Amino acid sequence: MRWIAALTGAALLATVAGCATQDRTSLAPEQIAALPGQVEPVHAAAITRDQAIFWVTSNGCTAKADLRPVVAATGEGSIITLRRIKEDRCEQPQPEGVEVRWSFEELGLLPGARLSVENPAQIDAKVG
Predict the structure, then answer these.
(1) Domain limits at 100?
(2) 38 located within any domain
(3) Which residue of 6, 8, 107, 113 has the lowest C-beta tally within 10 Å?
(4) What is the C-alpha to C-alpha distance for residues 5 and 43, in angstroms, rounded to an integer?
């Protein structure tokens, strides 16, 4: 999993393929503040085979329904931001996180669409 995180960590800022869209340039600050939940830091992300795949922190109960992908159109494709809408209050932390994925169809994107990931990376710092 660590090598996947290292390889896909760079993909967090890379432009790849896409989602249901809204013109980002037309969003006012109050509209951004009104979006559901909080931006979710991710361990890793990948866009492959017309799917958006994320590895997110979990205390043992995180499910796909606890997260919401928000897609905004840009001049060069779309940007996806994963937002947590339900807190995970369980007490069995998953050190590697859990995988959640959305197909482009679920996201309202055409196959092969360009997509960038906007979420910040969750850095696992170990002091040893």
Answers:
(1) 2-117
(2) yes
(3) 6
(4) 6
Question: Where do the H-state alpha helices sit in the chain?
Answer: 2-9, 29-33, 104-107
Q: Provide the number of structural domains found in the chain.
A: 1
Q: What is the pLDDT of residues 71-107, one digit of tens each?
A: 998 888 999 999 999 999 999 999 889 999 999 999 9
Which strands, in side-by-side order, build the sheet including 94-103? 42-48, 51-58, 94-103
Task: Dump pLDDT digits (tens) for 21-55.
Answer: 344 444 556 666 678 899 999 999 999 999 999 99
Spatial neighbors of 34 by CB under 8 A, at least 6 apart, are: none
Phi and psi at 51, nearest 5°, equal: -135, 145
Helix (H) or strand (E) holding 86: none
This prediction's pTM: 0.73
Q: Are strands 38-39 and 42-48 parallel, antiparallel or unpaired?
A: unpaired
